[in-house]
Specification:
256 residues; mainly beta; Immunoglobulin-like; 7-stranded mixed sheet; 2 helices; 15 strands; 41% strand; elongated
């Protein structure tokens, strides 16, 4: 993975029954009650030393804000105050109205926000655009591969581009804000593209962890051995690979 500029943030996993009001106090919920399921933006933050009731989460300007304050006062008038404030950029299509948060038994604050991929609106003009996009894959398309599903991916936003001289290239872009190039891993196996990213931060006062996993099946003809990826200054992972159009229809044997 190479870098074209800067980057940064986020995400997935679990589903929880927690408070949908972003300003409410956090609830102490055992982590074992959290079932794994749909795609979410997720942040984990070590809040040891804070009372969960003093920690507040809210969404402001498409950012999750975490704030907490803990005071200890003694009879002789001495006191100590501990405060924390952290903010995290929300990814595109995050459903901020349904922010949920909880503190695990080992003092980890978990904040989750559902990510709702936009429903594709099928109008006549869109159907024509899709037909034109599909025609670029050639006459002898693989009858097994889901070409419409590939070009409709809201995560990778794939495009097949005719770059001239009979050459074509597949280009994709995936949002990976707040991650550095060395924290992102791109791999391909059996034409399945997998992007994984993980960010860990630890010091004497806190620990944080965020992660991202996305995958997509690449169409037959994609030259995966020449696939390249770049991180641009807008936090987009750009992925591209040459595409060679199949020259004959794939036949499928009927099993007896």
């Amino acid at each position: 993975l190479t870098r074209r500029a800067s980057s940064s943030s986020f995400h997935t996993s679990g589903n929880i029954n927690a408070n949908a009001n972003a300003g409410n106090s956090l609830l102490s919920i055992p982590i074992a009650t959290v079932p794994a399921a749909s795609e979410k933006f997720r942040v984990q933050l070590n809040v040891a030393g804070f009372n969960p009731d003093t920690i507040k989460t809210r969404v402001e300007d498409r950012r999750v804000i975490v704030e907490g304050k803990h005071e200890e006062r003694q009879a002789n008038g001495d006191f100590s105050v501990r405060e924390i404030r952290k903010s995290y950029d929300l990814p595109e299509h995050a459903d901020s109205a349904n922010l949920a948060s909880f503190v695990t038994p080992n003092n980890m604050l978990v904040v989750e926000v559902p990510i709702n991929a936009p429903q594709l609106q099928r109008r006549a003009s869109q159907t024509i655009a899709d037909s034109q996009a599909l025609s670029l894959f050639g006459q002898f398309r693989d009858p097994i591969f889901d070409y419409p599903g590939f070009i409709a991916s809201a995560d990778f936003r794939p495009r097949l581009i005719d770059i001239g001289n009979g050459q074509k290239s597949i280009k994709m872009a995936l949002a990976v804000k707040n991650y550095q190039p060395e924290q992102i891993r791109v791999s391909v196996k059996n034409n399945q593209l997998l992007v994984q990213a993980e960010h860990n931060y630890n010091d004497n006062n806190r620990s944080e962890r965020s992660f991202l996993t996305k995958s997509i099946s690449l169409p037959p003809g994609t030259q995966v051995d020449q696939l390249k990826s770049f991180l641009n200054g807008e936090g987009q992972l750009e992925i591209e690979a040459p595409f060679i159009e199949p020259t004959q229809m794939r036949s499928i044997e009927v099993q007896h």
